[in-house]
Amino acid sequence: MPEPHRTATGIITESPLVLVDAITTEGVTGHGIVFTYTATALRPTAELIENIAPLVEGKPLAPLQISDELAARFRLLGTQGLVGMALAGIDMALWDAQAKVHGVSLTRLLGGEAKPLQAYGAIGHDGWRESAIVAENWAKRGFRGVKAKIGYPTLREDLEVIRAIRAAVGEDVAIMVDYNQCLTPAEAIARITALDETGLTWVEEPTLAHDFEGHAAIARAVRTPIQCGENWWGPLDLRHAIHAGASDFVMPEVMKIGGVTGWRRAVAMAEAHGLRVSNHLWPEVSAQLLATTPLAHWLEYADWWNPILTHPLQIDGGFALPCTTAGSGIAWNEAAVSHFSA
Ligand SMILES: [Mg+2]
Fold it and tell me: Per-residue confidence at 5, pLDDT binned at 50, 70, 90?
């Protein structure tokens, strides 16, 4: 990555990606992206996908059916972690191929129409001065929202960062903050209660992502909306979170939630519960999916993977414009892929 991205729980300096191609007998190639977070998981994930490939080869191009068959195949091992990531990468590639076979965007394949989506930009865990500069740059580019990593050693520093960002962007830009799971529920209640006056649009993952009861206790105790979802594995995690009352909004990630298939099933539940839906990373595919999501909220914009894409997601005046050509908006810049190949 051109610049490291700091969070309360670690620094991200590289984006280890496994690029998945699904090739149909008609010669259509579908693409999917798996982000392994750490390079140590890169090769095992790639090998897992290669090992799963024979289970898909020769089957009709039916992403829902293949998703269910593979989930059944891995039921005893479990479909979280690397297995879930591998299956999601295959699922994304199959849906991309399906859309291309029909000559339409993923949005249109799913019955929707491309529309502009309000987008926000990211601010790292870089202190109040740098946070304010980055926020101002996003606002100058027309973005209507910014999201800052907080979780500094003291509440005072968290407040300083939020106030500096507010001073930089004014009242009309939404500010979200992300604790990246670094607080206990009790700490989170104390901190967020103190942040309630700052007009935040949401506070993300204040405590451990799978502590649904903890998040529910926080959500009940504070006024600022709680946002979770990027670390939920599959629609079932989302169901458990909803039942617990863990989150006021949801932001599933197309990979961990189970690919396009998992996303569709998860957001159907979110819609039935009246929960606004945002995404985590995968801006190209997520824009296509959010365009078909009735309670679409914010698109999380990230340019981390732009170097390997021929057509990264377009932003105009702070709004993301989902790609309207056939497929899910993913095409490899082959020269860049060769250059960055691990
Ligand atoms: Mg987050």
Answer: confident
CA distance 283 to 90: 18
Q: Which DSSP symbol is given to 21?
A: E
Residue 206 CA to residue 28 CA, distance in Å, equals 43
Radius of gyration of the chain from its Cα atoms, rounded to whole angstroms: 20
Q: Tokens for 302?
A: 């990230």
Of 146, 203, 195, nearest to 169 by C-alpha is 146
Reported as a single tens digit per residue, the pLDDT across 26-39 is 999 999 999 999 99
Q: 82 C-alpha to center of ligand 1: Å?
A: 19
Closest listed residue to residue 266, CA positions, set 301, 239, 244: 239
From the list 194, 9, 16, 174, the residue with the least C-alpha distance to 89 is 16
Q: How far is the CA of 148 from the centre of ligand 1 (A)?
A: 9
Ligand 1 centroid to Cα of residue 257, in Å, is 14
The one-letter amino acid at 69: E
| Residue of 100, 125, 147, 149 with catalytic role | 149
End-to-end CA distance of the chain: give it in Å, rounded. 14
pLDDT recorded at residue 11: 85
149 is catalytic: yes
Cβ-based burial of 220 (10 A; exposed 0-12, middle 13-18, buried ≥19): exposed
For residue 278, report the distance from its CA to the centre of ligand 1, in Å: 11
Q: Output the CA 103–ligand 1 centroid distance in Å.
A: 34
What fold is seen in the domain 7-103? Enolase-like; domain 1 (3.30.390)
User: Which of 318, 328, 324, 274 has its CA nearest to residue 298?
Assistant: 318
Question: Which one from 125, 256, 280, 297 is the annotated catalytic residue?
Answer: 280
pLDDT (tens digit, 9 = 90+) per residue, 35-79?
999 999 999 999 999 999 999 999 999 999 999 999 999 999 999
Q: Give domain limits for the chain.
A: 7-103, 109-321
Determine whether domain 109-321 maps to CATH 3.40.190.10. no
